[in-house]
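Most newcomers find our protein records easier to grasp once they have seen one. To make this concrete, we reproduce a full record directly below:

…
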Amino acid sequence: MFSYEDYQKKSAAAQNSESLPKVGFFKLNKDGDSCLVRFNIRSTADFKMAKVHKPVFGRKYEGLSNPYAGIACHNELGGDANACPLCAAVAAGHPVIGKAENVIFVEMLVAYKDPATGMFAEPVPVVWERKGSYSRELVAKLQSYGDLSQQLFIMTRIGSGKDTRYNLDYAVPAIYKPEMIPADFSAFENFKVNKHSFWEKTVEEINEYLRTGTFPAQEKQAVQQSTPVQTAYAQPTYAGGYVAPTSTPAQPGYVPPVQPTAQPTYNSPVNPAVQPAPQVQNVSTQAQEQPAVSSEQRSFNRRF
């Protein structure tokens, strides 16, 4: 329940959010392209950094709307690598998951320069993903110019492919007027970089990906959590000898139980020789309709 006043506040916030420009991704397309930049950085406290597993170059994560974005590592900086199933998969030679790396997500207002006319377009809010080491260049700029949100910089792309680098120079106010990019960072007020630039997946979702090769849909995952089903998954072998883990790790001397051949009795089967497939019931229904289990069967279950 909420009051009418709360409703009005929520409605106003939603309208304001819809009126703000959508935050995009920064990109200079080719060698020589340039743009004007105003950073949403006043001090190192504004740095947004994370440790992520990006897919190996040329690969992608199946099942994600942005399959090339990194996935947050469950191992904190300097922590126990065993806490992260992605790190364990990399060590086992997984062909898609890349090693964990530190990255920085830089929020900026950018006015792209049209190479044909030499004119700068209207500024747009973007996020620029760089390796964590790029933070040192930003620290140097903070030491030289102070609050970066109050300065304009001109950025130029040099080179292409793996040889690409970016020159970042101070934009002299006499040439590049500050009003070309007003210091309006309202687009970032309620912005969450972990909802935009990289994924935060649970250990269960990651293990599902390791078993099946694709991340589960949220609806499917919710059903699996509420109604767990014991499933024997196949162990696909990937290049490099990587074998996806199963939901139940193999134990020494473990032998899968032989499935009983007896079929359950159903009400009024059309053909007694062909039994219909059992239907998966809601958890509460299963608890009420679970058939009686003999002492021999309970002993069998405990052994396996």
